[in-house]
Design a protein that fits this description.
Layout (H helix, E strand, L loop, with lengths): L1 E7 L2 H11 L2 H4 L6 E5 L3 H13 L6 E9 L11 H14 L6 E6 L4 H4 L3 H8 L3 H14 L4 H7 L1 H12 L6 H10 L2 H4 L3 H13 L6
Parallel strand pairs: 1-2, 1-3, 3-4
Helix pairs in contact: 1-10, 3-4, 6-10, 7-9
Length: 210
């Protein structure tokens, strides 16, 4: 039986999670087997159809986690992130994943995680720390925010401004996987959504005794 099914919104989440799950020791879990399932309707699809699409995996997978961005889910103006998580969790219970599932909403989206592992981002794109700070300040000023506020409220926009505009590079799922392979787990744990995910995984898959 496979340890974990991840029903996710897109290839970027897939790349980052593949890298993170490939590092069980710093994550604080035992090595696990896992399968990724991408929803064809992305974030809104995970919320609407994710529980039903995982139903057929109950007999072949021990646990399931759904992961999606709040921005783009279609619920941004209707429900708070905790309310959406509660709804999705209740529907996972209804398809009998009870006590074997997790629901993780990224607020506002995956790129928030990148700003919690900034040294990994800088190393991957070979950005000098002073340049990244200056570019971040310039972008934040345009939006009448502090850099810290921008990293929380507009993480994707800031990331794209730096990579696409400043560096003239494209962004691919492979970038997320490589950043995830460098990311400091301790830094990521300061992000509530990542901390919730890590807590869930550690409960299911505790480290093997030394």
């Amino acid at each position: 039986m496979i340890d974990l099914l991840l029903h996710i919104a897109d290839a970027e989440i897939e790349g980052f999670m593949k890298a993170i799950l490939g590092r069980p020791v710093p994550l604080g879990i035992r090595p696990i087997t896992f399968k990724m399932q991408r929803n064809p309707m992305r974030d809104s699809g995970v919320v609407r159809s994710g529980p039903d699409l995982t139903r057929t995996f109950k007999s072949t997978h021990r646990h399931a986690v759904l992961i999606w961005d709040h921005h783009g889910s279609g619920r941004e103006l209707k429900q708070t992130p905790p309310d959406v998580v509660a709804e999705v969790s209740a529907r996972m219970d209804s398809v009998t994943w009870t006590e074997r599932h997790g629901a993780i909403v990224l607020v506002p989206e995956l790129e928030e995680w990148l700003w919690h592992c900034e040294p990994a981002l800088r190393a991957h794109f070979k950005i000098d720390e002073s340049d990244l700070q200056r570019w971040s300040e310039e972008f934040a000023l345009l939006h009448n925010q502090s850099v810290a506020q921008t990293k929380r409220a507009k993480p994707k926009e800031l990331f794209h401004d730096i990579v696409l505009k400043r560096l003239g590079k494209t962004v691919s799922p492979r970038d997320f996987e490589q950043i995830g392979s460098r990311a400091g787990i301790g830094r990521l744990l300061h992000c509530p959504s990542f901390a919730a995910l890590a807590k869930t995984l550690r409960g299911w898959f505790p480290p093997e005794p030394a």
